[in-house]
Amino acid sequence: MRGDPQYWLYYAVLREDPHLISYPYYTKYTKAGDPTYFRHIDCNIADAVKTGNGANMIQGSVSWDEEDSENCTQTLIGFHKIIAGYQEWRETSKMKDSAGYIELWDNARDFPQACRDRFPGVQWKNEVCKAGQVRISSPLIPHGSTGPATKERRTMLPWFVKVHDDMSTMEVPGMGSYAEIATAHQQLTAAPTSPSGHPNQYGGIKWAFPADVNPVYSSSISRAVNCQLRWDSPLVQAELQALF
Asked: What is the distance in angstroms between the CA of the first residue and the CA of the last residue of the chain?
């Protein structure tokens, strides 16, 4: 999936920017009974509203199994449209801004009845995917998962993030440099942090799994997405020109 040109194209079109690389991230595998429930937003709300930091870093997943209403992603639909008004509400309500790269979400605390009355069109929705379907959403939308799981569910998260034209710095500085992410791809090891810049919650393996091998791609774009070629490589540029 990380080298699938069609999957990359979804992101390139939605972001209006082709210079994306796949951040080495995990695949989720859950079984019945696993405590899968969570809710958070993949940005610092105050920072995103005031500076735009991380606001364009759309994220998504690929489902490997048939999901249902008890085993799926949940999103707070419409929140990205009212996030500035929501931040204003937080400030007038004397709520402290988070200091983290991401924010855990508790509906009773973060979206109480007074807030729901103010933004009536913003509601939680189950995003039930079929096997092979792709879900892509704005980082400005709180999301999470149902839980506990009632059956096997596998999802892959091939995060695509922007590398700047200097081929060194990334859109969120805390996620690491291009060189660090490229090294993780080449050595088949964990990236330095997470795409949001938050430390790896479950730790990171500092060595490659012995059975891992580097994928071989026929597309230069796929190689650029996985840091095997730079985006300024003539091979990649020629393929981009032919595509666009």
From this structure: 22
Supply 1's token pair: 């999936």
Helices (H), 60-103: 79-92
Specify whether 30 is located in the same domain as 20: no
CA angle 99, 96, 174 (to 5 degrees): 15
Give strand ranges (E) for the chain.
Answer: 20-22, 27-30, 38-41, 59-63, 73-77, 103-104, 123-127, 134-137, 143-145, 153-156, 160-162
Total tally of structural domains belonging to the chain: 2
What does the pLDDT look like over 151-193, one tens digit per residue? 999 999 888 999 999 999 998 888 899 999 999 999 988 888 8
Nearest to 64, CA basis, from 6, 162, 151, 137: 151
Residues near 111 by Cβ (< 8 Å), separated by ≥ 6? 76, 105, 122
